[in-house]
Design goal:
Length: 228
């Protein structure tokens, strides 16, 4: 599903963020990406959805080689990905329903299918009763659930989440993890960068630990291994 071969990333200012990484993530896995601040986690995540391009080496996701992919094909590649950020990035003037439906409208799905799919996805994230609310009328946790619903409405094969619980209180964070586990149980591969030690140590999944741009630990049911 995701493969990196001898991947390096050096930014124009000379900072080497990724330093010779080799890794493979299979279909249906749930993977935490952990490590201290500045370790290279965000760059590692961004390489997966082609926000960043490797300086050397290749990243293959869903059969797309991200080293050689043409710019015009990047939107097509991203249709099979769901991407969730800790700052939500919802459209403030659109309702919950409209925020989630937008991704389907872009690919010209029929109105009838859009309604069916969106309401089903909102049911999965527990927000079916708030479809007509605007983002500012929701709590932070509810806004994050909308962001997750938007990310999964196209039934992506891979969900990439960059600190999805970073701005949330502990109780809300556990609720978000319930949603991510449910999505994973439905067959979607989940890759989640996180600083949340308690979640990683409680909900045991594969852990990829990054330090200095290198993978220093890769465990099937690992723990966090860092103090905040």
């Amino acid at each position: 599903m995701i493969e990196m071969k001898d991947v390096w990333k050096t930014y124009p200012n000379g900072v080497m963020a990724i330093n010779g990484i080799d890794v493979s993530i299979s279909k249906g896995e749930f993977v935490y990406v952990v490590g201290p601040s500045g370790a290279g986690k965000s760059t590692f995540i961004k390489l997966m959805y082609r926000e960043e391009k490797p300086t050397k080496g290749n990243v293959v996701v869903n059969g797309f080689s991200l080293e050689t992919i043409k710019e015009k094909k990047i939107p097509l590649f991203r249709r099979n990905l769901g991407i969730v950020f800790q700052d939500f990035r919802l459209l403030p003037t659109l309702t919950v329903y409209e925020n989630v439906a937008f991704a389907l409208e872009v690919i010209e799905e029929s109105p009838a299918n859009i309604k069916r799919i969106v309401m089903n996805v909102l049911d999965i994230v527990g927000l079916k009763n708030k479809a007509r609310f605007l983002p500012h009328e929701l709590s932070g946790g509810e806004q994050q659930r909308v962001a997750i619903a938007r990310a999964i409405v196209n039934t992506p094969s891979v969900l990439i989440a960059d600190e999805p619980t970073g701005n949330l209180d502990p109780d809300t964070s556990w609720g978000i993890m319930d949603v991510l586990e449910e999505i994973n149980n439905r067959g979607t591969t989940v890759v989640m960068a996180t600083h949340n030690k308690e979640i990683v140590n409680t909900i045991r999944k594969r852990v990829i630990a990054i330090e200095g741009g290198r993978i220093v630990r890769d465990q099937v049911r690992g723990g966090y291994g860092y103090e905040r």
